[in-house]
Design a protein that fits this description.
The protein is built from six helices and 20 strands. By secondary structure, the protein is α/β, with parallel strands linked by helices. Helix 1 packs parallel to helix 2, helix 1 packs across helix 3 and helix 4 crosses helix 5.
């Protein structure tokens, strides 16, 4: 019987030692749990479509250096935090100076503050489903802690720019923890970009805890280059009356994977998840989402759309779990997929698990191609075939792109989508 591949021990030796002692101890403890960790295979249910794209070498275990020039694609004029290869760069960042809002790097925390954080890190995630979040817990060299006291409101979005400089083979492990106090409000934007062409591995974890009536908007823009494998996890825990809104836009690569897990543990909590993915060439993107309705009277709405061209591969696996005490839950999941070529592949698996009887839930998924009648209609109005294809494809996802609440992010996403259309439909 063939033995399953194991995570190389080279990945269990972090480079950075500037963290406070409680976080160093936590990292060491998490690393000890990863000894002989099996890597996912096709037999691993939540990796069955993605395991073959995972390529980890010992050289890739080396932490990429933080030195070098920073630059970002978002035209950010407000608050921003810049990470380079997983290390926070203070001189390139611009923190808000507002009462009730604290933003600190992990390395700047006192031992007392780090003790508290060590108990929180990883608490929002199901690590059996987001296996590589464990690796991040053993390897993060730095991180960002954002704390909002009760009633605090961040008056502008906070942009977190993650830059991967893939000038040499290596890895980066960014980590973010956001604690939103009661009645607080924040919009946080994560942008992932890269430069260089060496093989690189980026493993990210972002966590949100929302106290009663907190309001958090999370925007995630994944635009790394063709040499970067990216595995990310986002964990969310919501208390009474809180609202969490997520907008994820992803462009394919050699391996892209995002696990988004939301737990509604307080009554009258609401969550809204929107996602758009486009892939071309031989790219790959895998979205796994999970919404747990633990408390009663909570609402969730989820809409994801994928477009796959050429020989690329996109995956959506969405799960909604209605617990026994979650009476009067409302949950709706919708996934629509568009294949632009016969060689492209999209796999979708919506899951609905209900243990309460007084609920209103629905889920659905479709996979199709561009409608020839619609194309013919546009052609008959004097529109060229290429432009007709672009119009129909953009219309397929524009409903979600237009809901992104920040113009600068919409413009950045639209520019990359235009590149996608230019390359995908150039032969027509």
């Amino acid at each position: 019987m063939k033995q399953a591949p194991m995570l190389s021990s080279a990945f269990l030796h972090p480079a950075g030692q500037t963290l406070p002692e409680p976080l160093l101890a936590l990292r060491k403890q998490r690393a000890s749990l990863l000894v002989d960790m099996p890597l996912p295979t096709r037999k691993t249910e939540n990796w069955k479509y993605s395991s073959k794209y995972l390529k980890l070498s010992d050289e890739m275990a080396i932490s990429l250096p933080a030195e070098g020039k920073t630059g970002n694609s978002l035209a950010v004029s407000g608050y921003k935090v810049v990470f380079r290869n997983g290390i926070l760069i203070p001189e390139a960042s611009d923190y808000p100076d507002l009462d009730g809002i604290t933003i600190q790097s992990f390395s700047d925390l006192s031992n007392e503050e780090a003790d508290v954080l060590a108990l929180q890190l990883g608490s929002t995630l199901d690590h059996d489903q987001a296996q590589f979040a464990r690796l991040n817990g053993a390897r993060f060299d730095d991180g960002l802690l954002v704390r909002l006291e009760a009633g605090a409101v961040l008056d502008q979005p906070l942009f977190i720019i993650h830059e991967t400089a893939a000038d040499a083979t290596g890895s980066a492990f960014p980590r973010i923890f956001v604690e939103a106090g009661a009645n607080s409000q924040i919009t946080l934007v994560e942008e992932y970009t890269s430069s260089g062409n060496a093989p690189a591995f980026v493993n990210t974890v972002t966590e949100f805890t929302l106290a009663d009536s907190a309001n958090v908007t999370s925007i995630r823009l994944n635009m790394e280059g063709e040499s970067v494998q990216h595995i990310g996890a986002t964990g969310v825990v919501q208390n009474h009356g809180s609202r969490f809104e997520s907008h994820c836009v992803g462009f394919g690569g050699p391996l892209r994977r995002h696990d988004l897990q939301v737990r509604l543990v307080g009554e009258e909590a609401e969550t809204k998840l929107n996602g758009v993915v486009v892939t071309q060439g031989k790219q790959h993107y895998d979205n796994h989402t999970s919404i747990d309705h633990v408390a009663a009277n909570c609402n969730s709405e989820e809409t994801y759309r994928n477009i796959a061209a050429d020989q690329s591969h996109a995956i959506f696996n969405g799960r909604i779990h209605i617990h026994q005490d979650a009476q009067k839950s409302f949950a709706d999941m919708n996934n629509k997929n568009l294949l632009l070529n016969n060689g492209a592949e999209i796999d979708t698996k919506p899951e609905l698990e209900i243990y309460a009887d007084d609920v209103k839930c629905a889920h659905g998924a479709t996979i199709g191609q561009l409608d020839e009648e619609s194309i013919f209609y546009l052609l008959s109005r004097g529109i060229g075939r290429r432009d007709a294809n672009v119009l129909l494809t953009m219309a397929f996802i524009n409903e979600l792109v237009s809901q992104i609440p920040l113009e600068v992010v919409r413009d950045t996403a639209q520019a990359r989508l235009n590149e996608f259309f230019e390359q995908t439909f150039q032969e027509i």
